[in-house]
Amino acid sequence: MSNPDHHTKSNGDEPLIVVEDLKTHYPITEGWLRRETGRIRAVDGVSFTINRGEVFGLVGESGCGKSTTAESILRLEEPTAGTVQFDGQAITELTGQALRSFRRRAQLVVQDPNEAFSPRMTIGEAVAEPLRLHGMDDVSRRRRLVEDLLERVGLSGTDADRYPHEFSGGEKQRISIARALILNPDLIVADEPTSALDNRVEADVLSLLDNIRREYGISVLLISHDLDIVRRFCDRLAVMYLGEIVEKGPVDTVLGSPAHPYTRVLLESVPSLDPSDQTLARPLTNTVPDPSDPPKGCRFHPRCPEIIPPEHVTLDRDCWRSVAEFHFTLQMGELPETVTEGNGDAAAVRKAFDLPQPLSDDRAETAIETASNAVADGNTERANSVLKEAFPTVCEREVPPENSVDGKLAKCHLHNEGSDNDLL
Ligand SMILES: Nc1ncnc2c1ncn2[C@@H]1O[C@H](COP(=O)(O)OP(=O)(O)OP(=O)(O)O)[C@@H](O)[C@H]1O
């Protein structure tokens, strides 16, 4: 691309972006003195790298911290801790000219192109605006660059004189991409770039992004909750849950043979003929915990269909899953409609959770009997404490390390070195 603002891109093999233990917390305040009473731990210790010219995907349910991660990388949010290196420089230390250069080299494409343009500015003016702001005063030169870029994103040079309302959503997103490209960036952050578009246009816009990164060697951070999009367009990805990355690695291996139970839940179906495997793709509980008070140990443990039983428990997998579902459903306050606390019907409690009577493990049976009686007596607090004491799990007790599993990293106790939990 001929661009006077062109900077020399480093061709080193080192990654373009290195994020280390990044934390971005939002304070929760109270009263007119705005006293801090807590913190939303939107991003809570994430590490990953983005290589030059690659598309890196960040996936996870709404609210898991994807946008906050992106905003922290772009310095739109101030990180609470950790570092982000961009081409070897810590972005939080940039000031003056270096900061301006960074702003030019890292561009954002937002979700909704309908909100990205002023209705009073022509498309040409909008696309040229970053050039003007960065000091290029030569109007005809700006115009040439804009026309060239509009053609590259599949529009015509003469479209520069038209206004945003004359374009469809997909065309507007192409124009947003042209605007992001005009300063010859090294990184484009695309935050759910097609969520406001219909499926047909979505594929066109994503193919455009893909072509552009191939043509210009630009890195793309693609944020999406849609695993199909990530599968088609990304080289590597990170899966986020409650402010943490639970699994990361090449797209083929992470989505082809996910190592983390949460990734399996996101994928929804385990490719297996064994129907009991299907239950492993369904979370134990539905509520995503509050990011200001995340669960101890593994943050996914109250929902994890593959939660590890205590060593002394000898139940088979399905039965243990029923016990765990009872335990955490009660803890999260999600009892099914068929269970009425305090109605004296302990059998209904067992039935609702598919807990056979008696269980094959005596200690487990005693605990389940006591806990279901406590629910039937309306004493869920006692039921909770009985279950907590009877079924201690490493998943609740300890924060899992990042374990390497067949070319991916998974933050899960199932893959701890020396663990035979893979057999579960
Ligand atoms: N400016 C803010 N102030 C306070 N809390 C915030 C702010 N921005 C985000 N949050 C909270 O931080 C958490 C992470 O939000 P974030 O938008 O990063 O998640 P996300 O994965 O991008 O979700 P979505 O897909 O819905 O955009 C959420 O609990 C959200 O409510």
Characterization of the model:
- This protein is an alpha/beta fold and 424 residues long.
- Helix content is 36%, strand content 19%.
- It has 15 helices and 12 strands.
- Helix 3 runs parallel beside helix 5 (169-181), helix 4 packs across helix 5 (169-181) and helix 13 (362-376) packs antiparallel against helix 14 (380-390).
- The N and C termini lie far apart (55 Å).
- The model is unreliable at 1-9 (pLDDT under 50).
- Adenosine-5'-triphosphate binds at residues 26, 40, 42, 60, 62-68, 225, 291.
List the helices and strands and how they pair.
Blueprint: E1 17-30, E2 35-50, E3 55-59, H1 66-73, E4 81-86, E5 89-90, H2 96-105, E6 106-109, H3 123-133, H4 139-152, H5 169-181, E7 187-191, H6 199-216, E8 219-224, H7 227-233, E9 236-241, E10 244-250, H8 251-256, H9 261-267, H10 275-279, H11 317-331, H12 346-352, H13 362-376, H14 380-390, H15 394-397, E11 402-405, E12 408-411
Parallel strand pairs: 3-8, 3-9, 6-7, 7-8
Antiparallel strand pairs: 1-2, 1-4, 4-5, 9-10, 10-12, 11-12
Helix pairs in contact: 3-4, 3-5, 4-5, 5-6, 12-13, 13-14
Adenosine-5'-triphosphate binds at residues 26, 40, 42, 60, 62-68, 225, 291.
